[in-house]
């Protein structure tokens, strides 16, 4: 019945190259050489006796026949993955994409709690401040993002987080006798995130007899490290300093400033191919419960 069908490997290689519109990117996703991808595509074209790609100097594009096959291949492979995820036990590895700061300051310190109860699931963290194309990048099983939550397929709000003011106990104690206060802020790499006018806010709330300066960093990790070494008051999400708060290294203060700061959302996005994946569902359930528990405490 199916003896005239090409091999699943060639269809998988073709679907990847068609989706990414690049033999090189397909090779990276599949962990093979670009030559191997090109060979599989050529073999598939020879078997079908049609051209699926137009080769240009620095790129490739699909022919009409290639477009038709790509649409069907993508749908069939997604359905196959969906069924496999339903009938099999949890996979060995779960790849999580998230930001550098969330990975370093919250996820890694708390991951042992998940692993102790799910030892059969190996969680691999891909930390990058650039946004993952989770629907097309099959190296990532789900992403955790920070920004304005949008109700979309596969998206789940984890928590709406408001920034606060955090400094070492010594810094808070010396604040009254300090003429110039230093505030530590993050300048977002992601230009789509809304910038808050911290200077305008501080001008309204800081006593008139006090001066202040604002030092900006490109990463929340740097903000936290500067605060931990007594360089100033970090304006940052509380979830990222949970470990420092529980150990007494940092304390929260300036509630009049904290309450006026606008917050953003932590949320996760699960691509359609993984929405019934047991490992992914276990991890999201743990993530939601753990974050909520940490903030309450």
From TrEMBL:
Protein keywords: DNA-binding, Transcription, Transcription regulation
Endoplasmic reticulum recorded as keyword: no
PANTHER family: HTH-TYPE TRANSCRIPTIONAL ACTIVATOR TTDR-RELATED, HTH-TYPE TRANSCRIPTIONAL REGULATOR
Entries under SUPFAM superfamilies matching the protein: Periplasmic binding protein-like II, Winged helix' DNA-binding domain
Pfam families membership: HTH_1, LysR_substrate
InterPro entries: LysR-type_TF_proteobact-type, LysR_HTH_N, LysR_subst-bd, WH-like_DNA-bd_sf, WH_DNA-bd_sf
Name of this protein: LysR family transcriptional regulator, glycine cleavage system transcriptional activator
Superkingdom of origin: Bacteria
Lineage: Bacteria, Pseudomonadati, Pseudomonadota, Gammaproteobacteria, Oceanospirillales
Record flagged with keyword Cytoplasm: no
Protein family: Belongs to the LysR transcriptional regulatory family.
PROSITE patterns xref list: HTH_LYSR (PS50931)
Domain called HTH lysR-type: residue spans: 6-63
Gene Ontology MF: a single term: DNA binding
């Amino acid at each position: 019945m199916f003896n005239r069908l090409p091999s699943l490997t060639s269809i998988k290689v073709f679907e990847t190259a068609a989706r990414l519109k690049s033999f090189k990117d397909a090779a990276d996703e599949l962990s093979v050489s670009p030559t191997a991808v090109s060979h599989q595509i050529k073999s598939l074209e020879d078997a079908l006796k049609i051209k699926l790609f137009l080769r240009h100097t620095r790129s490739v594009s699909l022919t009409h026949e290639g477009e038709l096959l790509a649409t069907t291949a993508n749908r069939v492979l997604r359905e196959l993955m969906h069924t496999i995820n339903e009938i099999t036990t949890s996979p060995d590895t779960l790849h999580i994409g998230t930001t550098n700061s969330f990975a370093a300051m919250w996820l890694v310190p708390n991951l042992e709690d998940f692993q102790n109860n799910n030892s059969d699931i190996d969680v691999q963290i891909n930390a990058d401040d650039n946004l993952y194309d989770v629907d097309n990048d099959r190296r990532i099983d789900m992403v955790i993002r920070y920004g304005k939550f949008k109700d979309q397929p596969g998206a789940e709000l984890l928590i709406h987080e408001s920034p606060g003011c955090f400094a070492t106990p010594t810094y808070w104690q010396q604040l009254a006798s300090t003429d110039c206060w230093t505030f530590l802020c993050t300048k977002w790499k992601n230009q789509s995130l809304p910038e808050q006018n911290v200077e305008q806010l501080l001008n309204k709330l800081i006593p008139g007899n006090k001066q202040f300066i604002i030092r900006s960093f490109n990463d929340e990790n740097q903000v936290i490290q500067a605060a931990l070494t007594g360089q100033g008051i970090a304006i940052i999400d509380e979830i990222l300093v949970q470990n420092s708060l529980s150990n007494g290294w940092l304390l929260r203060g300036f509630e009049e400033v904290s309450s006026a700061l606008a917050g953003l959302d932590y949320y996760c996005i699960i691509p359609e191919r993984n929405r019934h994946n047991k490992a992914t569902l276990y991890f999201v359930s743990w993530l939601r419960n753990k974050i909520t528990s940490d903030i309450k405490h």
